[in-house]
Design goal:
The structure is a homodimer of 463-residue chains. The first copy, chain A, has 463 residues and is mainly α. Chain A has three domains: 100 residues, MgtE N-terminal fold, CATH 1.25.60; 120 residues, CBS-domain; 171 residues, Tetracycline Repressor, domain 2 (Orthogonal Bundle), CATH 1.10.357.20. Chain A contains 21 helices and six strands. Chain A has a three-stranded mixed sheet with strand order 1-2-3. In chain A, helix 8 packs across helix 10, helix 14 packs across helix 15 and helix 18 packs antiparallel against helix 19. The longest helix of chain A has 31 residues. Chain A is globular. Chain A starts with 22 loop residues before the first helix and ends with a helix.
């Protein structure tokens, strides 16, 4: 059993980057690859966790990556594959000899194999499943039969369970006589005769309780059962909300079929956060190691949507060419009205998207939140209206211009508060992702309304 | 020992909101509060987890909240306080009778008390500490002596440990004879005679191994030691990166002083994500239950920064009043150039901020990522330049106008790729939060450069 007790982070004085791959190590590794020194490479890679090696492979360029993988092939660990980003993973898998790949996959737990193969094309998937022992292959195929992003794909099938009427002593003896305990488990799930989970007991409590204690007396207070078809998003929410460490998974008949542990839930939660953040900016699934042409393609659609939104704003401006021709100052000031509204809307939108994700924004408080956001828009709108009104008046010496820009800012910031909250809430209500598209739609609205309010008021007052 | 085995989410057919507080329950609870029916309220609240009750208290208005807390006071659980948002928490604490509050606080683990009191003013902090048993009070004071957001604030002081030379049998006997095992623990930490942690053993493995096995032979492969002064952000990163469940915490001399578990790390990770997302939009710490006036104040600073940025853009436009007066079409089209640049920059920026947070963007690949983003800007810029060039030409019948807007879009989208990556990287290098301010600064740059490139080219070509 190898033991990695090197307290690496302690020796590191750069607090801020305590765990990041040391640039010196990266340079040394790339040099070893350059001079094809396999022994030195092994030595440098030995202290690294599989997750760090995966990060390294993602960060170096494709040429170095292929040379590194070939040189390190003899020691290539299956866990590295699990930790890799999808885009780099396929690349690395194609670099490995079939025998190395088979060996690497055989080392993995069945839920990690599922993660590895679920995005592969059929023939590649089959090639990998073929190298697995029969039992694992069945487990992986079973998991793949559950819908994508369901609890069934996340769970481990190995569950440690005990009949609900057992005592602590019986459970301990049973565990100590089991041949095949999972590598990581934290609870014993109590089941009734129909194999329905009824409670769970932590190993710590099991250790601490007298042998004669019935298990039913030391069960955990918080106990959540996860249906196998539940979406992974809801699974992650439950782990986060109820501070779960592991939870039993049941089939449609309520029978225990597996267990999900917090590390799996944490990965989902992390992916959700990433998705929310990227979607708000109109970026879809991506990786830093994607090629420029792929990144370019991935970003085109939202830029296209944005172009259409921008053209709509231009059409609004085009309606007021006369008044702009008469007062060029309007062209100078109009982006300010749009920008303040866009900024206020983005603030509101971000808070709303986040609150929807954490289920803090619900039917119980949505009207109050919208009212509050509109009020915030009004308050801040008035403040900036005064500031900008004075600036506009002094700058261009036209008192009416100050009034116009002030009024337009108030109007646009109130609209920002309204659409910034209402748009994500409505998208969510209709089952769409509240983050996706909200940003573009909301700023399109504040741009158009900003130009319309400002130029429209100007046309009425100045012409 | 109470046991909550109600498999509530299973009975719920709205997949999408499997765990959210049911609006019907909320209505029923508020009705019970309205008619002051304490028995009915208890009945409705009984199946709810403390985290759900906290969510409920955050979602209802202040008046209902105070009536609910007073009616429910007799059964108020300490965990509800731990789960509440800071803003609502102080409000709720002030509603409780001192005796109820004391009882609620006494129920909590010392790390939860730390979380509860760390943001309170001195006298309130003292009042709460006074109700604790002496030993807990010392533990809380000790924790408060560590820097804010350090590992010392997160850790539990109760650690289950064993000398490194023990066997499985010795460890099990010791655990079974201990009076005070922590409620939740997952590992036994092995220490050397100087109390330095050297490895850890999971309870599952301890259960499964023969009694004569030395503990040193069944230690976990992945083992990370956390310095007590390490920032919680780095702690959360380590848990996420290395899939840790718990990790020992050591003082400056390397002696074991506590343990951090994954649930604490998960809360930090969640807060980090929230912070990144909000900071990018120029929103600081906030809660949906804040009052409008507080929210307004919190958002003013960034709106102020944005106003300055918008005025700078206006100053750029003001330099070209002549050419705009001659060709009003420029005023109509100029927001498109700025908007496309701003959108491309936000896409790039979001990817960069996220990659910095996950430590995927490092000195090893930063130059390659910047080159790629600039190339993506160039590629997409050319595509939209062609589209917009044609539209501009057809719309206004001026072929030069098509060329000018096309060229300006290419220039601005290349700049977007550059500043979208470089700004967060530079902020990060100087120890600032790459999310904070990036958004405003980056879009200010693309606004100014967009107007400058478009109007500048127009002045040269058209005048």
């Amino acid at each position: 059993m190898s033991m990695d007790t090197d307290p690496q982070p302690q020796g590191d004085d750069r607090d801020d980057d305590a765990y990041v791959l040391d640039p010196k190590t990266v340079t040394a590794i790339l040099y070893a690859v350059e001079i094809r020194d396999a022994a030195r490479l092994s030595e440098l890679m030995a202290p690294l966790h599989a997750a760090d090696i995966a990060d390294l492979l993602e960060q170096i360029n494709a040429f170095d990556r292929s040379r590194l993988v070939r040189l390190y092939e003899g020691e290539f660990d299956g866990d590295i594959l699990s930790e890799l980003d999808d885009s780099v993973r396929e690349d690395v898998m194609s670099l490995l000899q079939p025998s190395t790949l088979a060996e690497a996959v055989r080392e993995l737990d069945s839920d990690d194999v599922v993660d590895l193969v679920e995005d592969l094309a059929e023939p590649q998937q089959e090639a990998i499943l073929d190298v697995l022992p029969v039992q694992d292959r069945i487990a992986v195929r079973q998991a793949l039969s559950y819908p994508e992003t369901s609890a069934g794909r996340l769970m481990q099938r190995e569950v440690v369970m005990a009949p609900e009427h057992w005592t602590v002593g019986e459970a301990i003896d049973h565990l100590r006589n089991s041949d095949h305990l999972p590598e990581q488990f934290y609870h014993v799930v109590l089941v009734n005769p129909r194999m329905h989970p009824v409670a769970q007991v932590t190993l710590g409590r099991l250790m601490g309780a007298p042998r004669a204690t019935p298990l039913a007396e030391i069960t955990e207070e918080v106990f959540q059962i996860i249906p196998v078809t539940q979406d992974e998003e809801d699974v992650a929410y439950a782990f986060n909300q109820y501070h779960l460490i592991s939870a039993p998974v049941v089939d449609d008949d309520g029978r225990l079929v597996g267990v999900i542990t917090i590390d799996d839930a944490m990965i989902v939660l992390d992916a959700e956060h990433e998705e929310d953040m990227l979607h708000m900016a109109g970026v879809t699934e991506s990786s830093l190691s994607d090629r420029a042409i792929d990144t370019s393609k991935a970003r085109l659609p939202w830029l296209g949507v944005n172009l259409c939104a921008a053209i709509l704003s231009s059409l609004v401006i085009a309606q007021f060419e006369d008044v702009i021709a008469a007062f060029v100052a309007l062209a100078v000031l109009m982006p300010i009205v749009a920008s303040m509204g866009g900024n206020a809307a983005t603030q509101t939108l971000t808070v709303a998207v986040r609150a929807l994700a954490t289920k803090d924004l619900t039917p119980a408080n949505v009207m109050r939140v919208i009212r509050r956001e509109v009020l915030v828009g009004l308050l801040n709108g008035i403040i900036f209206a005064v500031v900008m009104g004075i600036i506009g008046m002094v700058w261009f010496g036209l008192p009416q211009l100050g009034l116009i820009i002030g009024a337009a800012i108030v109007i646009n910031m109130v609209i920002a508060g309204l659409v910034g909250t209402a748009v994500p809430v409505i998208l969510d209500r209709f089952g769409a992702d509240p983050a996706l598209a909200s940003g573009t739609f909301v700023t399109m609205t504040t741009d158009m309304m900003g130009f319309f309010a400002f130029l429209g008021l100007a046309a009425v007052v100045l012409l």
